[in-house]
Amino acid sequence: MRILRLAEIAAAVDGRVIGDPELPVGPQVSIDSRRLTAGALFVAVAGERVDGHDYAADAIGSGAAAVLTERPIGDLPQVVVADTVVALGALGRYVLDHSEAEVVALTGSQGKTSTKDLLAQLLEASGPTVAPVGSYNNEYGLPLTATRVEPDTRWLVAEMGARGIGHIAHLCALTPPTVGAVLNVGHAHIGEFGDQETIARAKGELVEALPADGWAVLNATDPRVAAMAERTSAHLAWWAVGGRPRQAGELFVWSTEESVDALDRYSFTLNVADVAGVGDGHRVRLQQSGRHQIGNALAAAACALAVLGTEAAERIAGQLSAAGARSAWRMELTRLRPPGGGPGEVLLINDAYNANPDSMQAALNSLANIARQRSGRAIAVVGDMLELGPASRAEHEAVGRAAGALNLDLLLGVGEYSAATVDAARTAGVPQVRTMAAQTDQDRRDVAAQIEADLRAGDVVLVKASRAQQLEVVAAALVESLGAVPETEEVSER
Q1: Which long-range contacts (CB under 8 A, 24 or more apart) does 226-229 make?
Q2: Phi, psi (5° rounding) for residue 385?
Q3: Is residue 154 a contact partner of residue 129, using CB atoms and an 8 Å limit?
Q4: Buried b (16+ CB within 10 A) or exposed e, 187-202
Q5: How far apart are the C-alpha atoms of 300 and 284, rounded to whole Å?
Q6: pLDDT tens for residues 352-397?
Q7: Spatial separation of the C-alpha atoms in residues 43 and 271, rounded to whole Å
Q8: CA 367, CA 457: separation in Å to the nearest integer?
Q9: What is the pTM of this model?
Q10: Does residue 327 sit in helix, strand or coil?
C-alpha cells in the first residue's frame, strides 16, 4: 500500500477521523499489535477471545501511526467505523482499485496454499506480484493481503477459503478475480457444509464471479469441479494428472511420464495445448514430496499460462522445477541425527499445518513411499482432523485402516479421536500403536520424547493433524533434541 492520508482512509472506509486528517499512514496494515512497522495502520478487531481495541494504545506505542476502530479511543489518531472487518475489506478493495493489479484467485478443499506458493513464483518473473503469507484466505487475511498491493503491482494471487455458502462470493467482491482456479472438492470442513455437493456449490462461487473475458481453470478429473464449467461465462482452461483433458475448452494442461525419487518428489512432462494444437512437452522436477503435488503444479501452470500465453510453457516448466515451499509445516523434510549419534539419519516430515481425510491419505502415502525407498521404518504421529461433523469417527478409523494398508510400523494417535484411529490401525495390522494426550505444549513435548525413545537410523517420521492440534510443537521438539543435519553434510546410509 502506498502511504495514505488519514482522511483518505476514512473516505475509503466510510469512517470518521479523530486526529490530524493529513497524517500519513502506511504502508503496513495489521490486526496484530505485536507485529507492527513504523507508520502502520492497526485494525482493532473484536474477536471471540481477544478484543483488539484493548491493544490500540500499545499499537501506537509500538510505532503504528493510527488505529481503525469501532469506538473512539481517547485522543489516539484514529478512524472510527461501524464495523472494522467490513472497513478492512473496503480498504483492501480501495488499494486494489488504485493499482494495475490483476487478481488470480484459487480455491479448493486441499492444496490451496501449496498451489498459491507455486503460482506466485511463476508470476513473479513477469511482474511485481503480491501473494498471501501462509493461509491468509478468509475475510481478514484476503483484504490484509490486498492492502500490500502497490500502484505498480501486476498480479495479486488470492487464496480463497470458505466455511459456508456465500463466503467465496464475498471474497470475490473484495478482490474481483479475472482468473479463478478450483482445485478439487474434498471432505475438508464437511461438518460445516454437510455434504460434498454443498461444498461444490460454495467453491463454484469463484467461477461465477469471473468476467466473460476471464479464465476459469478447472480440474478435469474431479467431476464436481468439471461441472462448474456450466456456471461460468469465462474462457475454460482444464488441467489433469496423467492424460489430456477431454472437455471442451481453450487451454489444456496435463502431465505424462511420471517418475519419482527416494524422497517421493515427482518428475513429469508438462504438456500444453490450446485451440491451435499441441506444443512440445517440457520436463518438470518438483521440489516438494507427494504425488498430489503434481496436481498443484498443473493448476499453477494453467493459471500462469492463461494470463501469460502458451509461449511461456518452457519457462514455466523451468520455474516449477526451481520453485520451493514458502509456507511452513507443509511436507517439510528435515534430516535429523539419530538418537545417540552414529551413522545414518532420521527423516522428519512436518505436515502439521492442517489435515483432512484427503490430505491425511496423501501424507501417509508419501511416508510409506519414502520409508520403503530408504528401507527404514514408517512412523506416523497423527492428530485429530477437525470439522468433519458426524463423519468424524468413521474418517479417523479410515486413517487407521490406511496405516495398516500401507504397512506402517508405528502409529501414535493424539486427540479426541485417537482411540478410534489406533483401534482401527491395530485391527489393520500396524505392529505398534499408542495413544497420548496433546492438550498442552508439555503434552506435545512428551509425544516427541516417546517417539524419540523408539527412533533409530533410517526411520521416517510423519507429524500430521489439523491446525488446532499444534503438532508442529512435536516436530520442533524432535529437531531441538536430535539436531538437524546440515544440507551440505554427507551422512552415511545404514
Answers
A1: 227/200, 228/182, 228/200, 228/203, 228/204
A2: -100, 120
A3: yes
A4: bbbbbebeeeebbbbb
A5: 13
A6: 998 999 999 999 999 999 999 989 999 999 999 998 999 999 999 9
A7: 46
A8: 16
A9: 0.91
A10: coil
